[in-house]
C-alpha cells in the first residue's frame, strides 16, 4: 500500500474526489484503489508461475486470493491445491491472502513448490475419514442384522410366555449369532459419534442375550415338569393294578379258610366285613386272574 503524503487530509470513503482513490476491502481495511479510475471493475492480470523448471502463465483477477490461484494451478502442475505453497518475493504466502494486497501485479513472477507437511496432513485426514466411513458402514450392517435377530427373539418370547415349548437348540443358536455380532462390534475402533453408535448397539445385543437366557431357563423348567408327569402316570397305574390283584387273592384265601372251618363244625369268628359277589362275577374274576402267577406262596391249614 502506498504511503500517504504528509499534510493531506484523511481519506473519505464514497464522497468527493478522494472517493475515486480509496476503497474498503472485505476485512475492513481502507486501501488505495489499484484499478483504472474510469472503471470500478477489477483488472485481470497475467502472472508467471514457476514449478520446477517449467513456467506457467495464469490469467487471474487482481483481487483474487492465493488459494484461488493454487486451485487454478492444480490441473497444470499436477498437485493438489492443499499440497503446494506459493512464494512471492521469497516469502511464502498464505492461501487467504489477496494478490493485490501483497503487491502482485501484471507480469509478476511466483514460485510454486510442493509442501510435504501439508500433503502428509491431508493424507492422514483422508485416511481418518475413510476409517470413520468404514466403521459407520460396519455398524449399520450389524444394526440391520441385530434387527433381524430381534424379531426371532420376540417370536420365541411370545411362544414361551403363552405356555408353548421351543427347542433348546434354536435358543442356543440364536444366542451364538448375537454373540458373533457382539464380537464384530468389539473389533470396531472409532471415535466421536461413531463410538456412541457402537456403544448403543452393544447395549442392544447384551439386552437380547439376557432375555434369551431367561427364556432358556423358563423353557427348561417346563420341559422337566412335562417329563415328570409322563413318568408318574404309568407307575401309579401299575401300582393300583398290583394292589387290586393282591387284595383279590387275599380275599379268595380267606373264603377258603372260612369254608373249611364251617365244614369241621367249629364256629368261625368273623372279624371283617366282606363284600359278597355272585358266582358269575367271581368266575369271571378267577378266569382273569388265572394267567397271572401268584406273587407269594400261601400255606393252607386244615
UniProtKB/TrEMBL annotation:
Q: Which SMART domains match?
A: BAG
Keyword Secreted assigned to the entry: answer is no
Locate the region Disordered. 1-37
Q: Where is the BAG domain?
A: 138-216
Q: Which Gene Ontology terms of cellular component type are present?
A: cytoplasm
Indicate the segments forming the Ubiquitin-like domain, all copies: 45-112
Any one Pfam family match given in the protein's UniProt record, by short name: BAG
* MF terms in GO: adenyl-nucleotide exchange factor activity; protein-folding chaperone binding
Record key words, sorted: Chaperone
Q: Which InterPro entries match?
A: BAG_chaperone_regulator, BAG_domain, Ubiquitin-like_dom
- Provide one Gene Ontology biological process annotation: protein stabilization
Q: What does this protein do?
A: Co-chaperone that regulates diverse cellular pathways, such as programmed cell death and stress responses.
Designated name of the protein? BAG domain
Species assigned in the record? Arabidopsis suecica
